[in-house]
Here is the input.
Amino acid sequence: MLKSIAVMTSGGDSPGMNAAVRAVTRTALHQGVKVWGIRGGYHGMLDEDIFEMQSKDVSDIIQRGGTFLGTARCKRFQTPEGRMLGYKNLVDRGIQGLVVVGGDGSLRGASTLSQETGLPIVGLPGTIDNDVWGMEYTIGCDTAANTILDAMNKLRDTASAHRRVIVLEVMGRSSGWLAMVAGISGGAEYILVPEEPFDLEQICENMKADYERGKRYILMVVAEGAGKASEIGPIIAEKTGIDTRVSKLGHIQRGGSPSVIDRVNASRLGEHAALAIISGLSDIVFGFNRGHVVSINLHDAVTNKKQLDPSLMRLAKVLA
Here is the structure.
């Protein structure tokens, strides 16, 4: 049984990270285990920005978006020398295991560190893209989807008032999950995702026909990996002659107070991660599948690509 562990957040922030860190910390303390917090992700590990945490250090954070520990992307950690320095800084403090909350890149770095040093590491999937293989949920994805939905509800009002086409660009470089679930729940007529090719010429023809039949407005949601709204919007306007506007949500999708789902799920995953690392388990990442907490091999999670559920793509076409 380990007696001293550390926890960190890394990569892009996501709502619910604080809930996960809180659960890891308080679960470990409840088991009589010392807990260290690492500020600024892998940067903090290399720069020794590491502090011992007590229960009060994670008070008043569950309702906050972002991550109170801070996060960053660290090029030095991508080198063997950087990883060994980070490992030494942990060992010097008596830290025997590490919990990493982050997305695909952060978990890949954790997997490499564990393989090279033997340090027990458990991962938690913190990314709004919901693109970690082997699970159906990642921390922050629900809040981000609801943020997009709120924007769509507002854009629908102005689109209807002016009989416009509105093209909304959302995050998702390699995964269209956010665009797909927000588009379906927001009633978008068109959803463009990187996993599926699309014919913009045909879409424009369909839009013209829709307007000729009396359609008052059209909402299109575009995942950034499928194309840029700033380029797609002008093409639609030129090809259809319909007044078209473009909106890009940007980093507002990362912020905001986490939803009930993200708070509860992150807390459950944090508890499992703490108990697992304390017991000496390593090289696993916890997620949800069919409503149950599951453990996935960390190497498998970062080397396999998660596919967008084809039933969602089919549903989007049926409901459009």
